[in-house]
Write a structure and sequence with these properties.
heterodimer; A: six-stranded mixed beta sheet; five-stranded antiparallel beta sheet; 54% strand; globular; B: mainly beta; seven-stranded mixed beta sheet
């Protein structure tokens, strides 16, 4: 049973527009959420995170929103740039240990 | 950010042989290291968690006798795929955690294993 789901395997956006990547989770014990960016044949790199006590965290062009009641989070990238083209994983952490549970990933393609 | 290296980056081996993958934290000490596996177009699946000086904790469904993990020091963990078979072909990624803070888990670049 997938505890973290990214229902859109791919997303195509025009350069300069907003990219919205979604993530849903089922485990109410998750208390911290992270977004990672991954290029082919490379390890994931940390992008942005949010604690369950917040509903929004912003870092430059990247904003993560958390709707705890809906068990849903989203990553907004605005404006999108061609260099943002990559696979984005959301990950969740429970309150026991430092284990991450990853979603299936969404491949973002930003067209010039 | 901190740097985690993996060696080799790519390995091709014959079925039945064993392959060792190294994961090193280059500029920090890692209390815990994690090993993940990624199949094509799929997510990262946690295989095991290793703490320096103690036995690794394996996730359900991961054969500990097949995937041997050694975390001999605070900067080095190794994953040995024993008697590899074609179905073990995958992308293996390690991550290292400093033990401080939720964001302080850094990923290696991954190792592509192909078993012929």
């Amino acid at each position: 049973d997938q505890q973290v789901k990214q229902n859109s395997p791919s997303l195509s956006v025009q350069e300069g527009r907003i990219s919205i990547l979604n993530c849903d989770y089922t485990n109410s014990m998750f208390d911290y959420f992270l977004w990672y960016k991954k290029y082919p044949a490379e390890g994931p790199t940390f992008l942005i995170s949010i604690s369950s006590i917040k509903d929004k965290n912003e870092d430059g062009r990247f904003t993560v929103f958390l709707n705890k009641s809906a068990k849903h989070l989203s990553l907004h990238i605005v404006p999108s740039q061609p260099g943002d083209s990559a696979v984005y994983f959301c990950a969740a952490r429970g309150n026991a240990g430092n284990m991450l549970t990853f979603g299936g990933g969404t491949r973002l393609m930003v067209k010039p | 950010g901190a740097v985690v290296s993996q060696h080799p980056s790519r390995v091709i081996c014959k079925s039945g042989t064993s392959v060792k993958i190294e994961c090193r934290s280059l500029d920090f000490q890692a209390t815990t290291m994690f090993w993940y596996r990624q199949f094509p177009k799929q997510s990262l699946m946690l295989m095991a968690t290793s703490n320096e000086g103690s036995k690794a904790t394996y996730e359900q469904g991961v054969e500990k006798d097949k995937f041997l993990i050694n975390h001999a020091s605070l900067t080095l963990s190794t994953l040995t795929v024993t008697s590899a078979h074609p179905e073990d072909s995958s992308f293996y990624i390690c991550s290292a955690w400093t033990g401080q803070g939720y964001n302080e888990q850094f990923f290696g670049p991954g190792t592509r294993l192909t078993v012929l």
